[in-house]
Amino acid sequence: MPDPADILGFWYSEPVAKHWFRSTDAIDAEIRQRFESAWHQAASGQMDHWKDSAESCLALIILLDQMPLNMFRG
């Protein structure tokens, strides 16, 4: 399972940030491959302890709100 720094570092990296509004199949596949299992864990409540700090809460929001747009596009 990734930690909050993994999610934030990936999401805010230049290669990914420049595709926030215009993703590619390759970016979508990378997000799905790297973070889909974490998304399932978070969606089932297994990562609720991430709500305890600002940094991990932001990572949880990105994982649950933004990354599914890439993982489950179409």
Largest sheet: number of strands, sense, barrel closure: none
Which radius of gyration do the C-alpha atoms yield? 12 Å
Q: How far is the N terminus from the C terminus? A: 25 Å
User: What order do the SSEs take from the amino end to the carboxyl end, as H and E?
Assistant: HHHH
Q: Which oligomerization state do the chains in this entry correspond to?
A: single chain
Q: Count of helical segments?
A: 4
* DSSP strand content: under 5%
Broad structural category: mainly alpha
Number of strands: 0
Low-confidence stretches: none
Average residue pLDDT: 96
Shape field: globular
Helix content: 55-70%
Task: Compose a concise summary of this entry.
With 74 residues, the protein is mainly α. The protein contains four helices and no strands.
Describe this protein's structure.
The protein has helices at residues 4-11, 14-17, 25-43, 54-71. Helix 1 packs across helix 4 and helix 3 packs across helix 4. The chain contains four helices and no strands. By secondary structure, it is an all-alpha fold.
Question: Which tags fit this structure?
Answer:
mainly alpha, single chain, globular, about 70 residues
Give the topology.
Blueprint: H1 4-11, H2 14-17, H3 25-43, H4 54-71
